[in-house]
């Protein structure tokens, strides 16, 4: 991958200097995983930072035999950055929702890069703060109706990772259990709300191609109280 394409794909590196990008590309390791494969096991956290080139992954927390999805990440995002600074035991893993391509940088080399490039260090802090704010927004919505929480989740996924098409903004057709977990609602409510959104013509689900299209993202954002 060329430095320009790498820079454009990952917002984290928007302000990084060219030397930083060239060095990172010389040390990255490429990975490909099929849907359903564990990308990162709980005992591997802290070994590297991973960047999503294509596809979708979910971060899960394990509670004994129960599994809860904490986050869904798509193209241009990254994970593992906090674990390299925290050596406490982990109870989470990362699973590929679709076929996925990743790049990884070892923890030691990534930390060296942050120290060498202050602009990258600052950009990293900005994106981590944004994630914390998104978590706070989710907490603030915990008492809102299930439909508002689910639609807000869909809009957020579309805004962060969606691909514009002639019909609308396209994302992955996520399992309802995962959407329910990150929206903090029940799986039954998720199924009912998705059916209603589909019947009203606000979304279009294509199971064959595993896509979900938000036909009018502005209308859905208004429904979720985002505008």
From TrEMBL:
InterPro entries: cNMP-bd_dom, cNMP-bd_dom_sf, Env_Response_Regulators, RmlC-like_jellyroll, WH-like_DNA-bd_sf, WH_DNA-bd_sf. Gene3D superfamilies: Jelly Rolls, Winged helix-like DNA-binding domain superfamily/Winged helix DNA-binding domain. Pfam families: cNMP_binding (PF00027). SMART domains: cNMP. This is cAMP-binding protein. It comes from Allocoleopsis franciscana PCC 7113. CDD domains: CAP_ED (cd00038). SUPFAM superfamilies: cAMP-binding domain-like, Winged helix' DNA-binding domain. The lineage of its organism: Bacteria, Bacillati, Cyanobacteriota, Cyanophyceae, Coleofasciculales.
